[in-house]
Predict the 3D structure of the following.
Amino acid sequence: MTIVLAVPASLDEHTFEQVLDQLAAAPADAKLLVDARHTKWSSPYGLASLLCLAQSRAERPGFTLPEESDTLSYWARAGFFRHAEQLFELHGHVPRGRQGESNVLLDLTPITGSADVHEVVGRIQQKAAQILTQELGLDPKATVGFAMTLSEVCQNIVEHAGRGGWVMVQTYKWARRLGRRVVQIAVCDAGLGFRQSLESLPGRIVDDRWDDAAALEEAVIKGVSRHRDRGRGQGLAGARRYVGRWDGKLSVRSGTARIAIVPSWDDDPPLAEKLAPFAGSQVLVTIPERLPPRDEP
Amino acid sequence: MMQHIDVSSMLHQAVACDLYSNLVTRPTGAAVRAQIQALVGAVPDRSLTVIDFTHVQMIDFSCADEVVAKLLLPYSHGEAADDSYFIFRGLTEDHWDAVEAVLERHGLALLVEECGGAAPRGVLSPEARAAWEAVRALGAASVDAVAARLEVSRERAASALATLRQQRLVMCAEGMYRMVAAARG
């Protein structure tokens, strides 16, 4: 029996939940067909999470490609099909897109080890400096922190996921939602997730209050790590400071919960619980364009 | 003995690649620190090591924890037997974001090379900071001299100086406390 998961027309961290709701209703061993025929757009989070969805299944799912040629072309340039063809049975004609889309700072890149983190940080630095300062109007100081944040969230995969994941960085204009340009870092894996990772800490008490939300709160807000080493757990704390300094947003989903550091321009709840379950962890960092100061009346 | 360590060169050796100039990831930081510790440990007597970040483009929190904090922790905890001192050179504001965060996390201080010589940065009590300033002003100073200058009891001065000595922020020989200073070059 094949279960069809319909991908929304616009795929981002919110609408991906619709895919997961459908997934939750499917038996674990069911054959899946991910139907993206009517999808017209996806954020980096959406593309990386689709790869994780396939990675989380024992049997390789089918994937029906988007019908819109612009969408196909863009997903190809973002590197989606290069990885998707390893994980899905693709149905449809895969375009051989050129790489180097101007607003894709970093195409979908697998992260499996420390060398990959060096590679992505090295690749992104120069382009990030130009885009953050010239297009988003941020102080040049934002550039180094951006690379640090990218490094730390990618290391989260290497250190805790137990398997590889993906990172993608892109800028685009959030016309309806914010009316400004943003840059987004999406880092997603289908590994252990925060709860299971923290449960490996010796002496951890797993009581009835311990769940995905509690694990996220410990890791993201309190900087708790599965290691006893006091120096651990600084990566996400650093990412939190960085988004705070540049009026950005950090959201981390793991298991059945999502926690977010929410800026004034966004109305997401700081904590969402009882979401449909999904393997691993999915981190999204959003930094908005800086608005020029308003003239005093 | 004084030695100079170019962290960028250590990084290239650690990752076996000349293309990377960023100190990122824990394994990289641990490898760089191991090389620094090997060089420091090879010196039998008192040593001063200048740890030079001039050619390091960026350092992240994890790497700062491995390279800087874990290098200093054994001294701060009184677990290191060797008489080693460190001055950090070429730390920019960008590096400092990560380094300051790990110093605060562990309650550590270090000496940073500035125009007027080395100066302590990081977590240091007001008394210890005042004692450090007193040693700088006096050149070489006994506990009594520092106590007199700060107008505190001998015990309090001794305690502050012992903290500075343990954190390798001042040197001590024959009862006299001195600044840690490196020649440029």
Notes: Strands of chain B lie at 2-6, 22-23, 47-52, 58-59, 84-89, 109-114, 117-122, 140-141, 170-173, 176-179. The radius of gyration of chain B is 17 Å.
